[in-house]
Amino acid sequence: MGKVTLVGAGPGDPGLLTIKGRQAIADADVIVYDRLVGPEILALMPEKAECIDVGKQSNHHPVPQWRINEILLEKAQEGKRVVRLKGGDCFLFGRGGEELELLAQHGIPFEVIPGITSALSVPAYAGIPVTHRDFTSSVHIITGHAKAGSRLDLDFDALVRHKGTLVFLMSVASTPMILDGLMQAGMPQDMPAAMIERGTLPGQRKLVAQVGTLAQRMKEEGISSPAILIVGSVCALSDGFDWFDTLPLHGVTVAVTRPKARAGTLTDRLRGLGADVISYPCIETQTIWPNMPVVEALASLDQYQWLVLTSPAGVEVLAQLLDAAEMDMRNLAHMKIAVIGAGTAKKLKEHGLRADYVPAVYDSVHLAEGLIRLVQEGERVLMLRAEIGTPELPELLAQACVAFDDVPVYRTLYQNGRSAEMAQLLAQGAVDVVTFTSASTVHGFVESLPEGTDLTGFTALCIGPSTEKAAKAAGMRTLTAANATIDAMLTTLQEEYTK
Ligand code: SAH
Questions:
Q1: Which of the residues are catalytic?
Q2: What sign has the CA pseudo-torsion 271, 274, 279, 281?
């Protein structure tokens, strides 16, 4: 028999999904999800899973609740592992209870994985502690949703009397009514109040005002759902405790073009700095196979004293090729290994090997200079590279009469399924920065877009000089890292935005 797992996805920041929730998503056969689940969490849904969007807009229910309940039941009866993914926590204004009733009646096993509720986390991201011993000793979470056509049914006298922090969900439309109700029940007009829109997400907006002024401010700023209203003296702490809006890249939209498999660290770290990251992988590496030159080179490794690798992808492909030839890293024991930079050296280390040579400046010219100095007469170099590698490396080695074989082991494919979306974002000026970690990512990016796309509206953040050259040639405005590492790229970008 199948099983249904209610999973609270948290308020939107993908880092606030629980470990258990993430595991349930990864294991699911069917995922039934809502509008409030953040895009980055939706991106975690496994390809094999059937994903059903039952997203609810206010006053507009594409899939009615009774039907959602039925879908959960039907899928579980088919023997599927069903995840019901909901924004925030499943049981706080999440109808989790209603969804379990039908399952319980039919004896379907279920599990509940609580989520981080927006009611507590959104204030936290706005620098508002919902309780504080100097200000208040309770917090009340209230729905501001009024059934269509009817008035809010709230006991304002009781809310004011408790003197606790008040957190209203689903309250964008009813905020003026709520604030009036509180003032009529005796709450002072200058009581601090705050409205937070799209909390914990890169586009978070925060308004801090007073009970008497907030409704007007909201109108001026055009606040829309999802947003929460917080009323209470703790709201006054918001400016002093603001840590999210003040992150160095808050409000900056960055497109990351690295291949999916390698984008992780850069994406996570950009997010950590507050950036809104759009994942836009436009190249993919494909091992060249069958590949006679590589078969021959691997069969006669003893004629080489040096191995040269110029990208992390090259290291991965080497491991694959050795394995396919029923060999392993021990077959390289007699060789010295030179790599182009820290990223390649790190990848090599993951395979248990140390690079013998990494140039101080991570580019092919410096790598060539180092090799010319180090390779002794009579020694031979094996370079395993991309099909279209930079020409400088072989040219410089040939000029210096270093003996080498340049064997292409992988090719770069340009592809992206989201190019229409990207072209539109660029046309709207909605992308501030595009990151490029190799010249091939620049080519892949340009190739992915319709001809004639304006490439001057964003900053191309480049890892090093040859990437910069490619970006400049494509007409982009560039910003280049001081040395060719992800760390340096991030430092350069932060400096640019904190100038
Ligand atoms: N179960 C959810 C709440 C569902 S009700 C939870 O625990 O968070 C939907 C309301 O939640 C929205 O109208 C809004 O008031 C609030 N909300 C959810 N996500 C939000 C976010 N990222 N920022 C601001 N408010 C949010």
A1: 34, 56
A2: negative
Ligand 1 contact, 172 CB (< 6 A): no
- How far, in Å, CA of 65 to CA of 69, rounded? 6
Rounded to the nearest whole angstrom, what is the distance from the C-alpha of residue 265 to the centroid of ligand 1?
29
Segments of the chain with pLDDT less than 70: 56-61, 148-149, 260-263, 416-417
56, 99, 118: which to mutate for ligand 1, most atoms within 8 A of CB?
118
Are the CB atoms for 4 and 56 separated by under 8 Å? no
Give the pLDDT confidence score for residue 60 in this predicted structure.
Answer: 59
For the chain, the 3-state helix, strand and coil shares in percent, each to the nearest 5, are 35, 20, 40
Q: Whose CA is closest to 352, among 333, 329, 322?
A: 329
Q: How far apart are CA 356 and CA 353, in angstroms?
A: 9
Rounded to an integer, what distance in angstroms lies between the CA atom of residue 191 and that of residue 24?
43
Q: Is 252 in the pocket of ligand 1 (CB under 6 A)?
A: no
What confidence score (pLDDT) does residue 61 get? 61
Closest listed residue to residue 308, CA positions, set 348, 269, 278, 271: 348
pLDDT tens for residues 204-260?
A: 999 999 999 999 999 999 999 999 999 999 999 999 999 999 999 998 999 999 876
User: In this structure, are residues 56 and 170 in contact, taking their beta carbons and an 8 Å threshold?
Assistant: no
Q: Tokens representing 400? A: 């210096």
Which amino acid type is present at position 284? E
Ligand 1 pocket, residue 92 CB under 6 Å: yes
Spell out the residues 6+ positions from residue 209 whose beta carbon is closer than 8 angstroms to its own.
192, 193, 194, 217
| pLDDT given for residue 201 in this prediction | 92
Which tokens belong to 213? 């002024």
> d(Cα 199, Cα 205) in Å, to the nearest integer?
7
